[in-house]
Structure formats: structure tokens, C-alpha cells
Amino acid sequence: MASSRSSSLSPAMTTTTTTRMMLPLFLLLILFAHSVTAGESAGHLAAGCGGFTRMFSLGDSITDAGNLAVISPNSTFNRLPYGETFFGRPTGRFCDGRLIVDFLAEELGLPFLTPFLRGKTAEDFRQGANFAVAGATALSQDFFKEMGLDLTLIPPFSLDVQLEWFKGVLHSLASTDEEIKKFMSTSLFLLGEIGGNDYNHPFFQNRSFTAEIKLLVPKVIAKIENAIKVLIDLGAKTIVVPGNFPIGCVPRYLTIFQSTSSPKDYDAFGCIKWLNDFSVYHNRALKSMLHKIPRDPTVTILYADYYNTALEITRHPIKHGFKKETVLVACCGDGGPYNSNSLFGCGGPSSNLCSDPSKHVSWDGLHLTEAAYKFVAHHMLHGPFADQPSRAPK
Fold it and tell me: Of 27, 104, 282, 286, whose CB has the highest number of CB atoms within 10 Å?
């Protein structure tokens, strides 16, 4: 790309050039939301058209609809059975079908967002773009290099990189200050889910929880805060910021910590309590930051409560159409009590597949099924798992 205002955005670009274009997308068609203070239960979100003409999303594999597949086309996640439920083929989504962001696009009357690295011209992003990359982190790849982690599974497409991608798209579609202001004010931004991989990578590389992983939380929150401020400064009016899922109920985590956990580590539903407590710790820090971030009354920031939404179907699966006996078991995996013996158990030669993904919460041990994502999206849009933290004065 010759300049940030170029109308040609070829995916065949160097990492430096790639760093020029991509950003958030997500959630609600908000007419209004119920304000709550930190510590209160989530408010109800009223869904409406909201005047949004496009969406932009940042994040990781929870939202990636094909960016990593451009970079790694031969990976197992880009083969069947991934994508089998809705698309009938792999699309680069880490799911059997649609993601939360896809359901949001449908509700807004928008097409599924074009993955940034699959776009060829600026016009491909006229109605929005998906900048999320599976494995992406809030903190930079260099940070984890200095931490001494193996970078094999940590792509160089952190939150800052995705923000630069978005800026490139923005300036290719809007040139004057007036055009940029209108463009930003009629766009919906989904900032995440991001941050989960900042913890996943060191967890999966056996790093110390107390001495290293837990200490990352303030750094991750600061990165998310900076991204929100960048978007607001560019003119964004509606930003949705999801929290993290309850990792203590995730099959891959349950497998990893099974041998070191005692009965007292588990709750009544079979999830590991201290891991869920860590998700709560991150989410509280995130929500606290959202309360404090300066913004004027024209800016709406919504916290999407992925944690409690996922817990709802984990704790009451039958009520919501899932099976109790498989609620903590991956639909597609490679054996073990949680069908998640390895990180890439789905799509490999030893993988096995459940007969009905719609009855499972977990798809491949780390990511949810389309049925579970649909549940999360519906309850983000229609309540009760989203709220608008009270704003700090600008």
C-alpha cells in the first residue's frame, strides 16, 4: 500500500505495511442502555437499528473470520469439520459455523464483515471490516519475546497493529475531517474480545500464574484503554468492549490442570474455580477502566458480559437446549475426559467429532460452537448481559 489513503488494499503486504489498517467491530444496535455502577449486575440492552451503516471489529480467534487463514491456509482450522454447520466448508472461523460478530451483522442488516487480509480495495470495506486475527494479543509480540515465550503461536498482529490497519481503511474511505466525523459516528466498533491470548500463551507454556500471568492484567487493560481512546479521538461514538470468558470451564484448561487440581478446586458444575476467579479479576479491572475513561456524553461505551453469558449455558444447559453431560466436553477433539487432549485436536488425523454440535457449548476445546455463540450474541443484544458503565467527565 503506497499510502494510508490508497484505494488499493492488497492482502499481499509486508508486516510493516500490514500494520496500517484494521480495527474493532462488535455488538449492539443501541438506542439506549441501562447504566450501572461497577459491581452491579449487568443491565438490559435495548436493541434497535441505531443508525449504524457499518461495523468494524478487532480481536482474536473469537472474532477472526479468515485473517489467519490467509497467512496459514494449510492449518487444521482451515479444514472440515470447521465451518460445517452453516457454511458447509471451512472459512477460517474457529467454529463449526457463525461467530458472535456474524450474528450481530445479521441483526444490523449488514453482510458478514470482510476479513481485512482478504480485501483487495477500499470498497471491500465500505460496510465494515474484520481485523481480528486468531492468536492475537493486546500486548505486542515483542513484549512476549522479552518475556522469553516461544513466539510460534503468537502472531505479530497485536491490538496496536490492528488499530493501524483500521486507520488505513478509514483514510481510504474518508478524506476530509467532515467525512471522517460522519464515517466514525455511523460506525459500530467491537473492541475484542482481546486479552485472553495474553494469558493463554503463557498458561500454555507453563509460566508462573502468580509471578507472571496475573501481573499481566494491568498491562493488558492499559492497552485496551489506549485503543478506546484512539477510537474516541478519531470520532467513534459507539464502542462495545467484551470481557473474557470463564476459562475454568474451557475443556482445554480443564485438561491441562486436571492432574494438578484437587476436588476442592472445582465448583458444583465441574469448572475450576481459581481459573474462573482469574477471569473475574480481568473483567473487574476492565469494567473499572471503562467507568473511568474520559468521554463526552455523545460517546457510548458498552461492556459485553461474555463471562456470565457463557456461565448461564454452562450451569443451565438443558434450559437452553444443550446437553448436561457434554457441557464441558469439546464437540471436536482428540480424546480424554474433555475431548481436548491437545491444542490442535480438531481437524487432525486423530480427531473425533460429536454427532450434534448444537448440543455442545465447546466446539474444539477453546472456542464455542455456533449454537453457543448465537446464545451469547442474542443475550448481548437483548439483555441481560451488557451494560453501559457510567462515564467519567472528559
Answer: 27
What own/partner pairs with CB < 8 Å and gap ≥ 24 does 255-259 have?
A: 255/336, 255/337, 255/338, 255/340, 255/341, 255/365, 256/203, 256/204, 258/337, 258/338
pLDDT tens-place string over residues 235-259 = 999 999 999 999 999 999 999 999 8
**What is the set of domains in the chain, with CATH numbers?**
15-246+284-315 (3.40.50)
Any bridge partners for residue 382, and if so which?
A: none
Can you list the positions of beta strands (E) in 145-262? 187-191, 238-242
Residues 6+ apart with CB under 8 A from 148: none
Active-site positions read 61, 364, 367
Query: Quick one: angle between helices 177-185 and 217-234, nearest 10?
Result: 120
Query: Of 33, 58, 51, whose CA–CA distance to 190 is shortest?
Result: 58
Cα separation, 36 vs 146, whole angstroms: 39
> What is the value of pTM for the model shown?
0.87
The pLDDT value given to residue 42: 38
pLDDT at 1: 36
Q: How many angstroms separate the CA atoms of 18 and 22, rounded?
A: 9
Length of the chain: 394
The answer to whether the CB of 129 falls within 8 A of the CB of 114 is yes
Q: What percent of the chain has pLDDT over 70?
A: 85
